[in-house]
Every structure is written in structure tokens, then in C-alpha cells.
Amino acid sequence: MSKVESAAGRPDPDLPGAVPWALENAVPQRRIDLLSLVPLVAIIALVGLVWALVWAVSRSENEQARLKLATDALWVEQTLRFQLNIDEDMLVSLAMDTVGGIDMATMDARARSHIVTNPEALAIVWHDAEGARMRSLPGDGAPTDDALVMQLLQIEAQPSRPVYGAVSPQGIVSIGMKLPERAGVLTATVSMPLLLQRHLPWWIAEQYGVRIVGADDTVLATRQRLQPDPANPSHTISFDPPLHGIWLHINAYDRPAGFRSAALFGAIAGLAAFAILALVVLFRSAQRRRAVELQLRGETAFRRSMEESLTVGLRAKDHRGRILFVNPAFCNLVGWRAEELVGRDPPMPYWDRATLTETQERHRKLAAGGAVSQSFETRFCHRDGHEIDVQVFEAPLIDARGVHRGWMGSVIDITEAKRAARLARAQDETMARTGRLVTLGEMASTLAHELNQPLSSIASYAAGMLNLMERGDPDPKTLKDATAKLAQQAGRAGLIIRRIQDLVKKREPKFIETRLDEVIAETLGFLDADAREHRVRLKAQSTPVPPVTADRILLEQVLINLIRNGMEAMSERRHGDEVTVHLREQDGQAVIEVVDQGSGIAPGLDNRLFDAFATTKAQGMGMGLKICRSIIELHRGQLTHRPAPGGGTVFRVSLPLAGPETGVTEEAA
């Protein structure tokens, strides 16, 4: 059984992505499909028929091959016997001529002619009645079989046919004929190897290896062009008589066609086995495919269930903006049914008509921007007419081939979140205003003293001018100088009052391009009297920094709070008498550092310094630094702190430089 299905016919829970509860009722009981067995039965029947046919053909071919081999072997045997009979007839003829009075010259000529035309005949020898050699051809050294000669001389009767002697290991045999009237013995020596070489037809030699073997399987003569395979068909015929214990052995060089048919049968059987195996694999693959299809349907249902359960709106669209898919959450968000939205081209019915041009431009830029994820806030209009603030996250829609087909958007309703943000911002503004009032309350005596100085000067200049006029004939130049000084002091008093008004009045934040060096200079001037009271010198060190987008009054509030905290820390214990404000540009941001030379931050307070109500002052509320951090975060900046070298604390404010992407808007806030 495959991994996809268990013994119960259910999906394997080890499969990646398997959803057992979604597939629990989706897999039916497995049934044996009889129709699926038809191809298997057909293949088995075909293999059986082919097997029987090949077996029958192979058997018939083997029988024909054996019959042909036997026929060829008999033909070879008859050919060799025929040639030996010719040698026998020559011997009988010479024997008759010897006793018939034919002269020796004639007999020599006949004998030599036979030797020339029959090379297997090595020699012809005449023996007398005692067995002594009288004459031999082709010379005196011609071989003969003395044992055969003596055997013939001892025979009383006259044999009708020549007698064969024993075959030597070299394949040499002698044929003897007893001459009539006890005239002696006539012998002929025959070479069996030459007999095969001379009288075996070429077409036999091309197909078979022929050997003449003795009783002990000694090879006496052979003719073969290569060593035959012992497994090939062979045939053996006895050569007795006339040669006692001699056999003729014929061995085929090639196997018969039946053996090639067996190889063909093996190939067919292998192909049939492969077909059966392929059928089994196909059957198992079909089972697995059915199980995967069931699993896919279950997973599709599961994903559809998840899509319908999501509270986040999902919307897919192609490059033209035509909607491909929406989930129920998106339909509920805009009040339109899926059937009314899918397949629709822009403009969409839920787009806000007031921002239609802006929305169309945004979608055009999205399509031209490539496969890059984007996020933006916009406003939709519900079908019933009320407006919805939404956050849209657009991600590239990539198909299975890796082609960018469009965009998948996640839409979140942030109407309530923005309402809560506006409420929190209003509360932060109220808290900041309260903090400014508290700061002014703490600085009341200092501010009164600071304001008293220009007012006293104004009163003095006014009294002096009255005295000059009462004396009569006042000097115009003196009056002019006094009037100018009086106006200067009045302007100074008015500046102090305007600063106090800016700090205490309730207003919306105004984010404009602001030069931080000017903000620092005005803040230090505002705190100059307070610094003299604390016997602290205020110092500014700045380098040219581009403007930032900020609310000037809020930044002054932050700097006032940080500088006054430093002055108050130095009133308890100090390592110097300076509070230094540094301004520089670093990593594309404007950085302000307020460095005091006071006692530093208590060890247990540094981790919760920006928490509400965290303070070391006896009369403090612990809200100043929290308000400062809220103001800086409103400007998309950061407020941090660290110990100063040599004692004291460094508060670091980092703000993004002014630019088209750093503008602080209501939506961003």
C-alpha cells in the first residue's frame, strides 16, 4: 500500500499539508474495480499465447536443426566411406594385377596415379609370403603396418575384401589385401587427417567442426575453422566397421534458430513483465492520484473555510486592476457581493469619489512599480454611503510558473484605530499643554523676575522723560534716545509674553520646515534667567544641519524640559557648571544632545526613566520625560539617554531631515 493511504483507506497523516479533520469523511471505502483488472488479464493472456507460440516454433526449429545435423553427419560419413571404398577398390585391383601377370611398370603407374589423385593414400607396399617388403611406392621409406601384414599371412582363407589395421595416434591406418596363391600381401597406408582435408565439402566445413576420435576420445583427425561451443548441437556416428572403435563426431558452429527463438521469447517475456510492472505502477499511481485529489479537495475546502473565517479582507486583481477574487470579509467591508465585484474593471464602486483621481494614480504607480510589496492608507466608501479608513498591503501575485500575474491585497479596517489615534493624540496634546503649564508654574518666579526687568526699565525711562518735559525745553536727542530704549524694553517684555502665550495656548501641531539652530538659540535665551538662578552656564555647539519638519513650539518644550532637568540635576551635585547643547547631522538625521554635568541617573531608574510618574524630584509628577518622548515620536524621531563621560547625563534627540517622504501628516501620526 502506498504512503498516501493507510490500511483503512484513509489519507496518511504524515503527508505534508494533510488536514485529517477536513478529509475525515472525504475518503470512501476502497472497492475492487473489476474493470481495472481487464488490462492485466489481457496482458497475461497475451504473454501466455506468445509463450506457447514461441515454444512451439522453437521446438519445431530444434527438431529441424537436429534432423539437418543428422543428415549432414550421415552425408559426411558416407562421403568418407566412399573414399575409403575407392582406396579398397584400388588395392583389390592391384592385387589382381599382381597375380595376373601384369608387368610391374604398369602396376607402378596405376599405383602412382592413385596416390596423386588421392593424397590421403600415403604409400602402397608389396610384401612377399614371408612378410618382407618387396616393393614400395612412392619410395622405400613408405610407411606400413607390419602387424597387419603378419595377421594377413596367418589367415588361411582368402578374404574377399581388404582388412583394416589399427589406427595410430597420428590418424594413420593401413589397409591390407592377401594376394592369391600365397603370393604375399599388398598394403596401402591412408592418412585420416588428409582424408578429412581432401574430401570434406567446403559447405560442411563452414557449418560444422568434424573430428575423428578413438575409443578413448583421442582426437585422431580434425577439420574445424574455430573451436565449437560444447553447448552447441552435435552428432556422433560410429565408423566401425571398417575402423574398429573409431567415431565420427560433428559439432555445429552456431546454435540452431530455436535457440535464437528462445532469446526472442525471453525478450517478449521481459517486455510483458515490464508491461505488467508498468500497469501495476500505473494502478498504484492512479490510487495515489485519487487520494491526492481527495486530499486536495479537503485542503481546498479547508482554505476556503479559513478565507471565509478571516476578518481581514482579501482582494486579488490582475495588472489591469480587474478583480479576480474577494473573500467574504472584503465583501462585508465594502457592502458589495462577490458576484458584483469579481471580473469588474476600475473604477471600483467602493472607491471614495472625493479621492478618485488620487486612487487611480496610486493604482497606476502600483502597476508600473514591478513585483514589489507596497502598503498605503486610503479611504473606501461603503455601499450604504458611510466612509471607511483602510490600510492596504499589496503583495505580488505569483503563479505556479513564477510569473507575476497581478496583486494580492490585504485590506484592514482602521476606522476605529484612527479614531482612537486621534483621541490619543488629543490626549497627548492636552498632556503636553499641561506639561507646559507645569513648566511655566515651576518657572513663575523666574519669569516674573525676567519680566520685571523690562517693565522697571520702561517705568524708569518714562519717569525720566516726564522730568525732562517738566523742566521745560527738553533736548530732542535725549528724548529720542530714551524713547528708543523704552521701546526696546517694551519689545523685550512683549517677546517674553508671546513666548508664554505660545507655550500655554491650546492649538493643533503645525509641522513646517524648522531650523534647529534657531530653536536652540531661542530656547537658551528663554532659559537664560533660569540658568543664572541655578548658577549654570548654557552653551550651544552646532554644525550646519538641514532643516527638519517639526512643530517649533513642541520642540522648544522638549528642549526646555531636558535643559531644566539638567540644571536641576546640577543643583544637587555637580562636576561642572555647564549644560551644553550639541547639534550635528549623522546618518541622514539631525541629532541634538543635551549634556549636563550633574549627578547622573539613579541606578534603579534608568530602565523606567520614560515611564509615567517616574521621578526623583520631591515636587515632580514624573510626566516630563514621557511627554518629551511622545513629542519626539510624533516627529518620527527617537529620544534616548546615556551616562556622560566624567559624570552627568546625555539626552539624545534624533529627527529625520525634511523631505517629501518625511512629512508628518495626520494619517501618519
TrEMBL record:
It catalyses: ATP + protein L-histidine = ADP + protein N-phospho-L-histidine. The keyword Transferase applies. GO terms for molecular function: ATP binding; phosphorelay sensor kinase activity. Residues 374-426 form the PAC domain. The keyword GTP-binding does not apply. Residues 446-659 form the Histidine kinase domain. InterPro entries: HATPase_C_sf (IPR036890), HATPase_dom (IPR003594), His_kinase_dom (IPR005467), HisK_dim/P_dom (IPR003661), HisK_dim/P_sf (IPR036097), PAC (IPR001610), PAS (IPR000014), PAS-assoc_C (IPR000700). The chain crosses the membrane at residues 37-58, 262-283. It is an enzyme of class 2 (transferase). Its EC number is 2.7.13.3. One of its GO terms (biological process) is regulation of DNA-templated transcription. Keywords: ATP-binding, Kinase, Membrane, Nucleotide-binding, Phosphoprotein, Transferase, Transmembrane, Transmembrane helix, Two-component regulatory system. Residues 298-344 form the PAS domain. This is histidine kinase. It comes from Ectorhizobium quercum.
